[in-house]
Amino acid sequence: MTTPQKLMIGVDVGSTTVKAVVVDPITKQILWSDYLRHQTKQAEFVLDFLKRIDAAFPGVPHENIRLFMTGSGASPIVPHVGAKFVQEVNAVTLAVESLHPDVGSVCELGGQDAKIIIFKT
Questions:
Q1: Which of 80, 79, 16, 19 has its CA nearest to residue 49?
Q2: Phi-psi region of 71 (alpha: psi -120 to 50; beta: other; left: phi over 0)
Q3: Got the DSSP string for the chain?
Q4: Residue 96 in contact with residue 117, Cβ under 8 Å?
Q5: Are 26 and 4 contacting, i.e. CB atoms less than 8 angstroms apart?
Q6: What is the pLDDT of residue 1?
Q7: Contact 89, 107 (CB under 8 A)
Q8: What is the pLDDT of residues 60-77, one digit of tens each?
Q9: 31-40: long-range contacts at Cβ-Cβ below 8 A with a sequence spacing of 24 or more?
Q10: What pTM did the predictor assign?
Q11: In degrees rounded to 5, what are phi and psi of residue 27?
Q12: Tens of pLDDT along 2-28?
């Protein structure tokens, strides 16, 4: 597999876990992902994920990487890593509308809350 020249990274900093995914913005192919319990060390786990992603894609210039963060713990981290904050419900809604347009509803159970999204035509 060749390394793409542009990447999109999504990081969800939740109340109990940190999840990250790296996607090729052209093909929408998932290139890397991880999911770990952060043991109340949200920022440290985000930093570790970003270092591991950087090591996994050494040929991609940093200016060609778009980083998005969501989750209850993301807001204080966003300005320190150059990310754009996306509210959780908006992130899920956009992803489902794009990847699964036939879905009528989504139920998402988080570590501290639950969300139900109902799609109407």
A1: 19
A2: left
A3: -PPPS-EEEEEEE-SSEEEEEEE-TTT--EEEEEEEE-TT-HHHHHHHHHHHHHHH-TTS-GGGEEEEEESTTTTTTHHHHT-EE--HHHHHHHHHHHH-TT--EEEEE-SS-EEEEE---
A4: yes
A5: yes
A6: 58
A7: no
A8: 999 999 999 999 999 999
A9: 31/1, 31/4, 31/7, 31/57, 32/56, 32/57, 38/13
A10: 0.90
A11: -90, -15
A12: 778 899 999 999 989 999 999 999 998
Q: What tokens appear for 29 in the block?
A: 């192919």
Q: Which of 12, 17, 9 is nearest to 74 (CA)?
A: 12
- Give the Cα separation of 54 and 76 in Å (integer): 21
Using the structure block, give the residue that is written with the tokens 């807001």.
Answer: 75
CB 14, CB 1: distance < 8 Å: no
Q: Beta partners for 95?
A: none
